[in-house]
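Same chain as my last thread, 111 residues:
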Amino acid sequence: KPFKGGQKTRKKKKEYLSSHLSQETKINRLRKMADLNPEMQLEYADALNEALLLRMKIEKQISEVDESILSEVLFQKYIFGKTLEDIGEVLNYSTRHIERLHVKALDKFKM
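reply #2:
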């Protein structure tokens, strides 16, 4: 059973984990901007490093979820951007079971 405030906590975790995919766009944009504005390369380099570090941090946190199937669900969803249905096909589980695993994985994920 979800603990009190569980949905709110899971929502924050989803938003945080989802930021991994958005960093890719940001990284590409910063690289292009640095090329277009060589005089500002240091500023872009700092922002680029921040984005890369956030991605690495999220990947490490996912890998620390203690059950491999749970961390795999998180990797597939938030790192590779797959839907829960697609994850079910990859892992050979029903979508409903992946939904349950996703909730369990979010509950075990530590920010």
